[in-house]
Amino acid sequence: MTKRVIHVGVGSFGRRWCSEFLTRNIADGTIEVVAIADVDAEAVALGQKTLGLPDSACHTSIEEAFATHEADFCTIVVPPEFHEAVVDVAIAHGVDILCEKPIAATMEASVRIARKVREAGRKMAVTMSHRFDQDKTTLRQVIRSGKLGKVSQVSCRYFSDMRGHMEWGALFRHTMQDPLLIEGAVHHLDLVADFAGAKCKTLFATTWKPDWAEYAGDTDGIVTMVFENGVRGVYEGSSSSATGLNDWTMEYVRVECENGTAILNNREIEVFTRQDIFHQRYREGMGQKLPLLQQPKWLNTWLIEKFCNWLDGGPEMETIVEKNVQASALIFASIESVRTNSAIEVQDYVGSFS
Ligand SMILES: NC(=O)c1ccc[n+]([C@@H]2O[C@H](COP(=O)([O-])OP(=O)(O)OC[C@H]3O[C@@H](n4cnc5c(N)ncnc54)[C@H](O)[C@@H]3O)[C@@H](O)[C@H]2O)c1
User: Fold this and answer.
1) Whose CA is closest to atom 40 on ligand 1?
2) CA proximity to 254, closest of 176, 142, 334, 336
3) What is the domain range of residue 58?
4) Is the Cβ atom of 219 under 6 angstroms away from ligand 1?
5) In whole angstroms, what is the distance from residue 181 CA to residue 218 CA?
6) Is 39 left (phi over 0), alpha (psi -120 to 50) or beta?
7) Residue 277: its pLDDT value, please?
8) Smallest Cα–Cα separation from 12: which of 95, 65, 77, 67?
């Protein structure tokens, strides 16, 4: 049955929600947007025009939007520090929640939101969109098929050239303390953990801001991880790289397994399978190229549909808020590691907020 949605936030990414993710799901009857809300009247006007909504459906007060319209769920696309305020309003009106990543701007708030949602008996999922992109989903299928055997090591590289002021979309990324970890690595560390297939046990992180990065906080970093199943992970990230070798959606991910190696680089997947020969020496480019999976919806377009299926009694979303606390833990434990210059026991760190 078509689900009624209140959409909150029509900023730089919220505009894409309106023009693409919501629109695609409106077109096939998955959802109906009953209202939009943003504290900025110009943003509301843009959302209204894009979605073709009447004035009565458009609000600059979040509270008013929820008080005026009956909805099955809301979509939250405001900066992380404002997620909780919107979640509170949604809970007060008995509305389920599909929220942009990260859950919140701090670990305390992430754990608090998960608790509030559980206590209220509501459903909430987080849009870890990159995990649900076509290329990463194909790689996941290769790894989960088990054909390459047990996973040993996962490596992820993100190198984007957004070093100039406002090149990373919105002002808050240029003024915040940890833009790489909170706005970038939140996806990449989540991907590494997903391919590792377990919760993170221990991590060590180092981050920095090169002289040429027009940001207040650190744009570059390296994180090493040990997962509870023994898999090791390495992440290298930069939002101020000189040449943008692995920009957004073009990341490099290499999964080393017992019987082979799978590499995703700039949306191409190649697989190397161990042969019965002495001292194997392959080079990138010599592997078996795989076609990407095909399906109608990817990214948040797919996640909206998955969320609706979950509300209808279908499978639980992979990114329910309680599980997604682990994605928050990866970034906030990394920040703690940088601050203390020490390795962090991630599950003890999560436990310290309960
Ligand atoms: N999954 C992805 O690939 C991806 C990409 C970009 C952004 N995001 C996420 O989307 C969210 C929004 O990011 P953005 O780049 O659009 O930010 P933005 O600053 O460009 O826009 C945020 C919008 O929220 C509005 N807003 C702020 N506080 C509000 C409140 N309390 N109530 C209602 N509206 C409020 C602002 O007026 C603005 O229009 C963040 O959580 C970000 O991490 C995700």
Assistant:
1) 79
2) 142
3) 3-129+300-320
4) no
5) 8
6) alpha
7) 94
8) 77
Please count the structural domains in the chain.
2
The alpha helices in the chain, defined as continuous H runs, are 12-16, 23-27, 41-51, 62-68, 83-92, 107-120, 134-144, 171-175, 179, 186-196, 299-311, 321-340, 346-351
User: If you measure from the C-alpha of residue 60 to the centroid of ligand 1, how many angstroms do you get, rounded to a whole number?
Assistant: 15
Are 150 and 88 members of one domain?
no
For residue 100 and ligand 1, the question of a CB distance below 6 A is answered with yes
Say if residue 198 is in the same domain as residue 227. Answer: yes
Considering the domain architecture, whether residues 121 and 107 belong to the same structural domain is answered as yes
Q: Choose the residue to mutate in 18, 100, 178 for probing ligand 1, maximizing ligand atoms within 8 Å of C-beta.
A: 100
The answer to whether residue 73 scores a pLDDT higher than 90 is yes
Whether residue 258 sits in one domain with residue 221:
yes
pLDDT at 24 over 90: yes
Residue 1 pLDDT: 87
Question: Ligand 1, closest atom to CA 183?
Answer: 43
Q: What is the pLDDT of residues 263-320, one digit of tens each?
A: 999 999 999 999 999 999 999 999 999 999 999 999 999 999 999 999 999 999 999 9
45 located within any domain: yes
Give the tens place of pLDDT for each residue, 156-188. Answer: 999 999 999 999 998 999 999 999 999 999 999
What is residue 261's three-state secondary structure? strand
Same domain, 204 and 105: no
Strand partners, 307: none
Flag whether the pTM goes above 0.85: yes
> Which residue of 78, 100, 133, 173 sits with most ligand 1 atoms within 8 Å of its CB, as the best mutation to test the pocket?
78
DSSP letter, residue 240: B
Atom of ligand 1 nearest to the CA of 13: 16
